[in-house]
Amino acid sequence: MCTCLDVADREQQCGRIMSLKMNPDGNLLVLDAYIGLYLLNFSTAAYDVQALVSMPELVEGRRLQHLHDMALTRRGFVYFIDVSGRFGRHKRVYSLMSRPTGRLLLRGPTEGAAAQFLFDELAHPTSVLVSEDEDSLLIAEASRARIIRYWIKTQKVGEREMFADNLPGLPSVIRPSSGGGFWVGFSGIREENRFSLLDWFSSKTALAKAITKFVPMRMMSWIAYRSYGLLVELDAAGSIIRSLHDPSGHVLPSVDAIEEYDGFLYIGCESRDYVTKVKL
To answer: Model's pTM, two decimal places?
Structure first.
């Protein structure tokens, strides 16, 4: 039994909840980085927990490593992402600097449905969002500083295309905005006219792979991230229309969760134990 939930080194034992969604039946879907995808059944007196995708069980013969975000359709289809095919969450910085091995998965709504891979080679994917018409998904790729669109319906089904490229940081979360666009939060920033080691490594994956064998992860984290709270609003076409900043990073060293509600933004950072509220 885990008794030290505030100690990062115990995450692999305790688990780390990354996403919560209410399904069409009114039950709670829970995505945990280390444990898998679970359903909390509110219709039973004991709130029974059912494993939908359990780690470390294999999916199509492959092991899941670092589950991070999920999107849910109105019919109950769950799309979720595995950040890396090589590294767990406790080594996520190495994933940023390695060749793309992230995956998109799908689990259907029927009882006993098996999860399946839709495609591989995503560059450290961190967030997924289903479109309002449920024709496509938006997927954030942190190590490429971009968001791609993946079509799940229409004649384009299975195709990928660029939605927003050359973003000002490493996108960590995408959520809808009331203006018909999207809020994007960042776990790290890219500064104009300043050398970015992560950008440099993105085209030198062999060198990055060698370095990850010798450089401690704490030092790699220092290289990859600088405390700076940043989120932007994109319009429906993927262009930035406004941004919000915490340059000191004292309140928000990073932006890892966003929800807009009733004229306010509620913003979370995984290294802070509070939610920041911002009036729009």
So the answer is: 0.88
